[in-house]
Prior knowledge:
The protein has four helices and six strands, in the order ββββββαααα. Strands 1-2-5-6 form a four-stranded antiparallel sheet, with no helix packed on it. It has a two-stranded antiparallel ribbon with strand order 3-4. The longest helix is centred in the last third of the chain and has 14 residues, at 100-113. The protein is of the alpha+beta class.
Amino acid sequence: MTSRRSRSRCRPDASAARCAGERCGVGNARERVVRLRGVSDRKVRPRRARCADCRRTHVLLPDWMLLRRAYAAPVIREAVAAHVRGKGYRRIALSLGLPETTVRDWLRAFRRNTSPPHVAAWLSSGLRN
Protein backbone atom coordinates (compact mmCIF):
# COMPACT_ATOMS: atom_id res chain seq x y z
CA MET A 1 0.00 0.00 0.00
CA THR A 2 1.37 3.41 -0.92
CA SER A 3 0.86 6.58 1.02
CA ARG A 4 -1.19 9.40 -0.44
CA ARG A 5 1.87 11.60 -0.37
CA SER A 6 3.86 9.39 -2.78
CA ARG A 7 1.12 9.54 -5.42
CA SER A 8 0.91 12.28 -8.03
CA ARG A 9 -0.58 12.65 -11.48
CA CYS A 10 1.64 11.77 -14.45
CA ARG A 11 2.35 14.79 -16.59
CA PRO A 12 2.93 14.61 -20.33
CA ASP A 13 6.63 15.18 -20.92
CA ALA A 14 9.43 13.93 -23.12
CA SER A 15 9.85 10.71 -21.17
CA ALA A 16 6.17 9.87 -20.75
CA ALA A 17 4.29 11.16 -23.78
CA ARG A 18 0.51 10.86 -23.43
CA CYS A 19 0.79 9.54 -19.87
CA ALA A 20 -1.74 11.00 -17.42
CA GLY A 21 -2.25 8.29 -14.82
CA GLU A 22 -1.56 8.17 -11.11
CA ARG A 23 1.95 7.36 -9.99
CA CYS A 24 2.87 5.02 -7.17
CA GLY A 25 6.35 5.10 -5.63
CA VAL A 26 8.42 2.03 -6.50
CA GLY A 27 11.90 2.95 -5.33
CA ASN A 28 14.84 4.92 -6.65
CA ALA A 29 16.57 5.38 -9.97
CA ARG A 30 20.31 5.06 -10.48
CA GLU A 31 22.60 7.48 -8.71
CA ARG A 32 23.67 10.50 -10.77
CA VAL A 33 26.29 13.16 -10.20
CA VAL A 34 25.01 16.67 -10.86
CA ARG A 35 27.43 19.56 -11.27
CA LEU A 36 26.65 22.74 -9.39
CA ARG A 37 28.63 25.93 -9.99
CA GLY A 38 30.74 27.08 -7.05
CA VAL A 39 29.87 24.00 -5.00
CA SER A 40 31.19 20.46 -5.14
CA ASP A 41 29.33 17.97 -7.32
CA ARG A 42 26.22 16.50 -5.74
CA LYS A 43 25.23 12.84 -5.83
CA VAL A 44 21.50 12.40 -6.34
CA ARG A 45 19.35 9.30 -6.39
CA PRO A 46 15.96 10.41 -7.81
CA ARG A 47 12.75 8.60 -6.96
CA ARG A 48 11.16 6.21 -9.44
CA ALA A 49 7.40 5.79 -9.78
CA ARG A 50 5.08 3.51 -11.74
CA CYS A 51 2.14 4.99 -13.64
CA ALA A 52 -1.12 3.21 -12.82
CA ASP A 53 -2.46 3.73 -16.37
CA CYS A 54 0.46 2.83 -18.64
CA ARG A 55 2.32 0.66 -16.06
CA ARG A 56 5.65 2.23 -17.09
CA THR A 57 8.11 3.54 -14.55
CA HIS A 58 9.18 7.18 -14.63
CA VAL A 59 12.09 8.92 -12.92
CA LEU A 60 10.89 11.91 -10.87
CA LEU A 61 13.57 14.59 -11.09
CA PRO A 62 13.71 17.52 -8.67
CA ASP A 63 13.06 20.98 -10.16
CA TRP A 64 16.73 21.89 -10.14
CA MET A 65 17.71 18.94 -12.36
CA LEU A 66 17.18 18.61 -16.10
CA LEU A 67 16.66 15.49 -18.17
CA ARG A 68 19.92 14.18 -19.68
CA ARG A 69 22.06 17.04 -18.32
CA ALA A 70 25.07 16.73 -16.03
CA TYR A 71 24.78 20.34 -14.85
CA ALA A 72 22.04 21.67 -12.59
CA ALA A 73 19.25 23.78 -14.11
CA PRO A 74 20.35 27.06 -12.44
CA VAL A 75 23.80 26.77 -14.07
CA ILE A 76 22.29 26.27 -17.53
CA ARG A 77 19.72 29.01 -16.92
CA GLU A 78 22.49 31.44 -16.00
CA ALA A 79 24.34 30.67 -19.25
CA VAL A 80 21.20 31.08 -21.36
CA ALA A 81 20.31 34.36 -19.62
CA ALA A 82 23.78 35.74 -20.37
CA HIS A 83 23.38 34.71 -24.01
CA VAL A 84 19.99 36.43 -24.27
CA ARG A 85 21.65 39.58 -22.87
CA GLY A 86 24.12 39.44 -25.77
CA LYS A 87 27.19 37.56 -24.55
CA GLY A 88 28.85 34.96 -26.75
CA TYR A 89 29.43 31.39 -25.68
CA ARG A 90 33.18 31.87 -25.12
CA ARG A 91 32.68 34.78 -22.71
CA ILE A 92 29.90 32.93 -20.91
CA ALA A 93 32.07 29.83 -20.53
CA LEU A 94 34.96 31.91 -19.22
CA SER A 95 32.81 33.79 -16.71
CA LEU A 96 31.14 30.59 -15.43
CA GLY A 97 34.31 28.50 -15.49
CA LEU A 98 32.78 25.90 -17.83
CA PRO A 99 34.03 24.23 -21.02
CA GLU A 100 33.25 26.27 -24.16
CA THR A 101 31.82 23.26 -25.97
CA THR A 102 29.38 22.57 -23.15
CA VAL A 103 28.04 26.13 -23.14
CA ARG A 104 27.91 26.21 -26.95
CA ASP A 105 25.82 23.02 -27.01
CA TRP A 106 23.37 24.43 -24.42
CA LEU A 107 22.93 27.61 -26.46
CA ARG A 108 22.41 25.69 -29.69
CA ALA A 109 19.72 23.58 -28.02
CA PHE A 110 18.11 26.73 -26.60
CA ARG A 111 18.01 28.43 -30.02
CA ARG A 112 16.71 25.29 -31.69
CA ASN A 113 13.89 24.76 -29.17
CA THR A 114 12.81 28.33 -28.37
CA SER A 115 11.02 30.95 -30.42
CA PRO A 116 11.33 34.71 -29.68
CA PRO A 117 7.95 35.02 -27.86
CA HIS A 118 9.06 32.29 -25.44
CA VAL A 119 12.30 34.18 -24.76
CA ALA A 120 10.39 37.37 -23.92
CA ALA A 121 8.08 35.46 -21.57
CA TRP A 122 11.05 33.70 -19.96
CA LEU A 123 12.82 36.99 -19.31
CA SER A 124 9.74 38.74 -18.00
CA SER A 125 9.12 35.91 -15.50
CA GLY A 126 11.78 37.33 -13.23
CA LEU A 127 14.75 35.26 -14.37
CA ARG A 128 16.59 38.27 -15.80
CA ASN A 129 19.63 39.26 -13.76
